[in-house]
Amino acid sequence: xxxxxxxxxxxxxxxxxxxxxxxxxxxxxxxxxxxxxxxxxxxxxxxxxxxxxxxxxxxxxxxxxxxxxxxxxxxxxxxxxxxxxxxxxxxxxxxxxxxxxxxxxxxxxxxxxxxxxxxxxxxxxxxxxxxxxxxxxxxxxxxxxxxxxxxxxxxxxxxxxxxxxxxxxxxxxxxxxxxxxxxxxxxxxxxxxxxxxxxxxxxxxxxxxxxxxxxxxxxxxxxxxxxxxxxxxxxxxxxxxxxxxxxxxxxxxxxxxxxxxxxxxxxxxxxxxxxxxxxxxxxxxxxxxxxxxxxxxxxxxxxxxxxxxxxxxxxxxxxxxxxxxxxxxxxxxxxxxxxxxxxxxxxxxxxxxxxxxxxxxxxxxxxxxxxxxxxxxxxxxxxxxxxxxxxxxxxxxxxxxxxxxxxxxxxxxxxxxxxxxxxxxxxxxxxxxxxxxxxxxxxxxxxxxxxxxxxxxxxxxxxxxxxxxxxxxxxxxxxxxxxxxxxxxxxxxxxxxxxxxxxxxxxxxx
Length: 510
What we know:
Elements: H1 8-16, H2 19-85, H3 92-105, E1 183-185, E2 192-194, H4 208-219, H5 225-236, H6 242-268, E3 272-282, E4 285-293, E5 298-303, H7 309-315, E6 322-325, H8 330-334, E7 338-340, H9 342-355, H10 359-377, H11 383-401, H12 409-419, H13 426-429, H14 438-454, H15 460-478, H16 483-501
Parallel strand pairs: 3-6, 6-7
Antiparallel strand pairs: 1-2, 3-4, 4-5
């Protein structure tokens, strides 16, 4: 007789009575408990890993931002280093002489091979400049019918390779217009009137564009009047003499004199003005070209004096702003609120150190002080902190002055530092004040180059034209305005004002 197999419940019942089964159950319970603990540890480790990953991403982002800041700071420091070195070698006078020489040797825009070991193109530390492509005025489809190699005809184009080409129109001949100006007599009051037209000038036979081009050719392109007349004839077939181009340029200056006076009033109310001067000839005699520059305006004034009477005349004797200048005695005679140019004193300290061994530590101390002050002022300091920084810096300068040195260039240098002790550190207390007068020196570079071409101003009319057009063009460039458009505007506006102010009368000259 075959026995029936045991059922599962009965087998479990038998196993449950077995002592070894109890041990297995206990072991299973222990394993379950251990598994639960391991799972808890795993979850904890997973959370820690997630937290560390997030922290790592945050640290990575912070390091990336810090690296970007360091790159930016490195570029800024490189630019500042060029700024510091620029005032030292060579002086602005030498730079101007170099520019004069380059302008007389040939076209200054021509690329000459480098022989000093340098490389052309963008220099290190300068941001790249990109030229935006213009929108085309027209499109021309350039197609080919057959293969130039085998003569097989093409079915269709496989693609288009566009190329933008910019070209100026062919020189246009002048437009000659005759304005038949009718005149009238009023039956009521008897007044006589000559009709006017906005494009018909009140004087001369040349229009607004000729006047603007004459002035720009003279003061922007540095052409002699004879060359200006040649240019008009070559490009437009317009025949006019050198004297005619001079009169056209003078007319542009007279039209812009009102705006010149507006620039002067703006500078008179400025908080900070850079001032400098350079020599110029008037009918062979010594005269001076002064420049007064703010952030948005530049004014030139030609005077026979180099004394304090010139800034007093231009700025007004009650001027309350800060003057940034070099060590010329006219400036402290005009105002006590000055900022002496650190570029000049550092350059003179370098020269003194080259000539006399005792000047080396003084030059090094001045340079370190200047760089340290610039770095410290980059942070947002309070008024109290600026005052304390100014006091510490003055003490450093006084310690330099107290040094005992033999007579010579170093003693002269220390005398200059002592003489301007009240004016070297103005920029610390006034954030808007620059420690150097580079802005004014830069404003004089273009007139110095032009001086080489002009040679001398003949009379008061020449001085008037010179200072007026130089001021207008420099100010318009500062403000990002188009000089040609502005010149045509001031000439037209002047004609309109002249017609409005003129007494109605019949012109005998027609």
